[in-house]
Amino acid sequence: MISSPASGLRAAELAKGCWTSEIRAVTTLLWFRSDLRLADNPALAAALANDGPVAPVFILDDEDAGRWRLGGASRWWLHHSLAALAADLAARGSRLILRRGPAEREIERLVAETGAASVVWNRRYEPWAVARDERLKATLKGRGVAARSFNAGLLREPWEVMNGKGEPYRVFTPFWRALRAGLELPAVIEPPARLAGPQAWPHSDVIENWGLTPKQPDWAGGLRDTWGPGEAGAWERLDAFAGRTSLEYGEARNLPGREGTSRLSPHLHFGEIGPRQVWRALTGRALAESGDLMPAGVEIFLSEIAWREFSHHLLFHAQKLPEQPLRPEFSAFPWASDPTGLARWREGATGYPIVDAGMRQLWATGWMHNRVRMIVASFLIKHLLIDWREGQAWFWDTLVDADLANNAANWQWVAGSGADASPYFRIFNPVTQGQKFDPDGAYVRRWVPELAKLPDKFLHAPWTARSIDLADAGVRLGVDYPAPIVDHAMARARALKAYASTRA
């Protein structure tokens, strides 16, 4: 049974060695961001090391984020994650201050209201966040307020893993080797038993007034049935994955009809658990059970944690990654204008069952199986020739794990325009992908129930079924379920031609 860390250095003991003597035992402002947890939280450890009151705050800053303000599904998750964090703080005699607006303005106000002599936070790596943090540090230090930031979200900092020329990696495999070779995880930081607050608490917003959850219509029923946001929910998810599932991960991760993945991505994105915690838990348990040999399934999962890391390093060093192709030649790619095709793709009405199942799972639960993410992304880009940025935008709004680095890097990978990208000629056939990875149709039957009674051999290509088979299954193509919106062979030839023109 894996649980939150119960051993290791106390937070104050760890942080004393890295904090300066200029900090007096007065209030420290602890700024929560994408680190919504109490365990293994370096900024919290630093705040506790001051031996004074701690004022925890979260600021909803849509203005600095600009076009990358949180999407609908992520806002739903944030609401519940903040509620869980507030409850965890209350159990320790503290509370969570909520503010909304430009973070720099609100931090300055809170420093004045609390008399804080220091502000601590854990880093974010989005371009707008990096720029804002640099400005804020300069402002605070200019006013005599100490400002410190820490790494709580990555295994290693983006500037720590470079190639032999001192440049960031653009290919994953050597990045993975370098990351692992230099990986030294710091000691575990326990969550505090108590957290002293200021004598007078500043004003806090009421989270229900932020309107993060949908009302009319309430589309979040599937999200509520699927997820348990918060630090405790993250550990429950990790515990469920860490046993047999992680050992079988190498095969099971590609089968969307099985519960074969960790589903940790939203918990990692919101920092309810960190990659170092996941790494320690999985490697410790796996090696304890199997000796010195790391099980293949766990090894593959660790490489995917490293792929997440790779994406964040890419974004840090290539700040235009969400807006511009990493490979400049793709700026001239002949994208098609197809509003109807885009709408059908979003709705899960393309006529290709594995694609439609994925898009419907996304809408219902705020999440999609990773193998199916690749299939639906390939379909949008290469079958419909629709710009990858359209798909990125839809995922941003509908995924509970919408992460700017992961989203941009993975969409560009599929498009062929990114780092270590999928070859231009790799065009998934959605029929054969469905037959290979959903052979018994469990996934399609769950999310495309109108096809549930079709025999397996027709399920992933219902237009190939005989009229009698369709009738027996209660399916009328074009009525109960759409015919394919594009022919695969034609789409493949068109995509290859478009890619050839770009390469030329």
Automatic annotation (TrEMBL):
<comment type="similarity">
    <text>Belongs to the DNA photolyase family.</text>
</comment>
<dbReference type="InterPro" id="IPR006050">
    <property type="entry name" value="DNA_photolyase_N"/>
</dbReference>
<dbReference type="InterPro" id="IPR036134">
    <property type="entry name" value="Crypto/Photolyase_FAD-like_sf"/>
</dbReference>
<dbReference type="GO" id="GO:0003904">
    <property type="term" value="F:deoxyribodipyrimidine photo-lyase activity"/>
</dbReference>
<feature type="domain" description="Photolyase/cryptochrome alpha/beta">
    <location>
        <begin position="26"/>
        <end position="155"/>
    </location>
</feature>
<keyword id="KW-0274">FAD</keyword>
<dbReference type="InterPro" id="IPR014729">
    <property type="entry name" value="Rossmann-like_a/b/a_fold"/>
</dbReference>
<feature type="site" description="Electron transfer via tryptophanyl radical">
    <location>
        <position position="411"/>
    </location>
</feature>
<dbReference type="InterPro" id="IPR005101">
    <property type="entry name" value="Cryptochr/Photolyase_FAD-bd"/>
</dbReference>
<dbReference type="GO" id="GO:0009416">
    <property type="term" value="P:response to light stimulus"/>
</dbReference>
<dbReference type="GO" id="GO:0000719">
    <property type="term" value="P:photoreactive repair"/>
</dbReference>
<dbReference type="InterPro" id="IPR002081">
    <property type="entry name" value="Cryptochrome/DNA_photolyase_1"/>
</dbReference>
<feature type="site" description="Electron transfer via tryptophanyl radical">
    <location>
        <position position="388"/>
    </location>
</feature>
<dbReference type="GO" id="GO:0003677">
    <property type="term" value="F:DNA binding"/>
</dbReference>
<feature type="binding site">
    <location>
        <begin position="401"/>
        <end position="403"/>
    </location>
    <ligand>
        <name>FAD</name>
    </ligand>
</feature>
<feature type="binding site">
    <location>
        <position position="249"/>
    </location>
    <ligand>
        <name>FAD</name>
    </ligand>
</feature>
<keyword id="KW-0157">Chromophore</keyword>
<dbReference type="GO" id="GO:0071949">
    <property type="term" value="F:FAD binding"/>
</dbReference>
<feature type="binding site">
    <location>
        <position position="301"/>
    </location>
    <ligand>
        <name>FAD</name>
    </ligand>
</feature>
<dbReference type="Pfam" id="PF03441">
    <property type="entry name" value="FAD_binding_7"/>
</dbReference>
<dbReference type="Pfam" id="PF00875">
    <property type="entry name" value="DNA_photolyase"/>
</dbReference>
<keyword id="KW-0285">Flavoprotein</keyword>
<feature type="site" description="Electron transfer via tryptophanyl radical">
    <location>
        <position position="335"/>
    </location>
</feature>
<keyword id="KW-0456">Lyase</keyword>
<dbReference type="InterPro" id="IPR018394">
    <property type="entry name" value="DNA_photolyase_1_CS_C"/>
</dbReference>
<dbReference type="InterPro" id="IPR036155">
    <property type="entry name" value="Crypto/Photolyase_N_sf"/>
</dbReference>
<feature type="binding site">
    <location>
        <begin position="261"/>
        <end position="265"/>
    </location>
    <ligand>
        <name>FAD</name>
    </ligand>
</feature>
<protein>
    <recommendedName>
        <fullName>Deoxyribodipyrimidine photo-lyase</fullName>
        <ecNumber>4.1.99.3</ecNumber>
    </recommendedName>
</protein>
